[in-house]
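REQUEST ID: PR-0412
SUBMITTED BY: lab tech R.K.
PRIORITY: routine
TASK: structure prediction, single protein chain
INPUT:
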Amino acid sequence: MKKAFESNGAQLVADFEKNITLAIVDEAWKKHLRKMDELKQSVQLAVHEQKDPLLIYKLEAFKLFSNMLDGVNKEVISFLFKGDLPQQNQNIQEAREVKRKENYTETKDEIESSESINREASQTQQRPQVTETIVRETPKINRNDTVTVKHVMSGKTESMKYKKAESMIATGEWVLVHE
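STATUS: complete
OUTPUT:
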């Protein structure tokens, strides 16, 4: 408390930052260790793929560690930017301003004019949004739907699934026949 008093609260802020940073690192490290255990289990299957499990383990472990460091850095920075300790002086100043505002009086005409302005503003904000309906000229074709395509030069027609006909249509030699 003596250090905090002598530093005008700067020591409290530093301690707060340290504790939050350690908590975030601790949680990230626990999660990283769980992922390393999962990696150890999955790398054992690499033997069946004719790959060196140790090499795969090293590469994947490095990626996991890098991702963990990036995540910790982002989370710590995000929290420290968002986190803020309240200061007593600001609260007292805000309370004084509220008291000053309470003593302010308005005439009846001023109150009525501000209410009419508020009503007009609320009426403009409450207009319903117009949604535009999109209508397709041709029906949507799913990839597994059967379609008929026609060769432009020879006039030959074939029926097949759309996913196979897509590449043929893209070349420009075939066209989709609408039935």
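NOTES: The first strand starts at residue 146 and ends at 151.
REVIEWED BY: pending
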